[in-house]
Amino acid sequence: MTRAIVVGASIAGLVAARVLSDRVDEVVVVERDRLSDGADARPGVPQAVHVHVLLRRGYVELTHLFPAFDERLATAGAPAIDWSRDAQWITPAGQAPRFPSTLRSRTASRALFEATIRAITLERANVRLLDGHEAVGLIGDARAISGVRLRPRPVAGSTPEPAGDTPTNLEGWLVVDASGRGSRMPAELEAVGVPEPQETVIDASLRYATRIYRIPPGSRDWKGLLVRDRPPSGTRGGGVFELEGGRWVVTLGGAGVDQPPTDEAGFHDFARSLISPILADAIRNAEPLTPVRGWARTANRWRHVERMRDWPAGFALAGDAMCALNPVYGQGMSVAAMEGPVLAVWLNSASTARAIATDSPPATTDLMRRLARAARLPWLLATAEDARIAGVQGVPQAGRVGSILQRYVDEIQLNAARDRRTMRRFTEVSQLVRGPVALFDPLVLWRVATGLAHRRMGRPSG
Description:
This protein is an alpha+beta fold. It has helices spanning 11-20, 56-65, 69-75, 110-122, 185-191, 264-272, 278-283, 332-347, 350-358, 365-386, 399-416, 420-430, 442-456; strands at residues 3-7, 26-31, 80-82, 87-91, 94-95, 104-106, 127-131, 133-140, 145-152, 168-171, 174-177, 199-202, 206-214, 224-228, 237-243, 247-255, 287-288, 293-295, 300-303, 315-317, 323-324. It is built from 13 helices and 21 strands. α1 links the parallel β1 (3-7) and β2 (26-31). The chain starts with a strand and ends in a 6-residue tail after the last helix.
């Protein structure tokens, strides 16, 4: 029997389990937290209380992998959103135009997204969840990994059994580490003779604070609100998005000295300091349902396993364990969803099919390179924006070409506040349905150049 082991019941891990279940006899998802059947935030995902956005690209991939996904979200009360019509974007250039589009998905809590995907995945007969267990080591050597060593985690407040300190072995044809940005697997690889991969870390020291509110009565024409200054002159921003249960998730963010406070008065003062009062006005009379919670782990981190020449067979990284992005841009869940088709193509390749047939550890070097290519665009979008923030760590000087491109992106955002076509292209790129080359559409180029010329002459560009 061919068994695949997925470490971590994250969205990346569940996507991997769903895809693997089409080709292997059994998939075991190992999760260190003890999970409930409801939409509860996992202790191992403290960031779950903060805003989580499912971009259009991620929504498309997830509804393809999990056909019941949208229906179940709707039943649970997750609002539908058209990102060009229902989201209000406020920038230093003003209020962006709004119009109907096909850039649709749903807004919900991270816990609901994850619980919905987990429930559908576990309905597959050959997928098994082993929660309350943590992977504490790998079985194998530098050439091939053939399983993991597991240790049960005691229930909080209980006395661990003596046998609980003795790891047990779980062998498998493939091990996928989807345990997040805090993954310990690189160190475990060193223990079996595999050097830790090189890392690129780009940290803009962005911090944010979040509070959940009950949506107050009254009419408003948006389901999502984003107010954002433009770095490097300003780094403060904030967002409001509808959740299931008639709630708002409200997140404020800033870099350097512009970090939002987590006390109630400071939170509201920070909201009032944004470039528009619309967010502060929206929450002024809203009933808070939670305290203000802060979050600081926002560095972009890439473990470059795709560069390693001697990568062990039978082992792969997925999601944040390989490429963790600054969460403020809302790309994480969508990138995890984008990995599903990449894994499916690799599983259907001739070499992997032969490994399945012979129950031998598959070579995964090609898979890691494919996953790296899928993460490249989101990485470039996130790090290019972070690179504009003063004091960012890990980014070399932009140089003349880089400075020109940054200036062009500035002009794109300024023009998007006045021009529907530019706004459409910019939203398509940020929603990951188009690559950055779409921003160089001839008509977009012309309108950006025209807007720049008009401003230099002191004339309105709209």
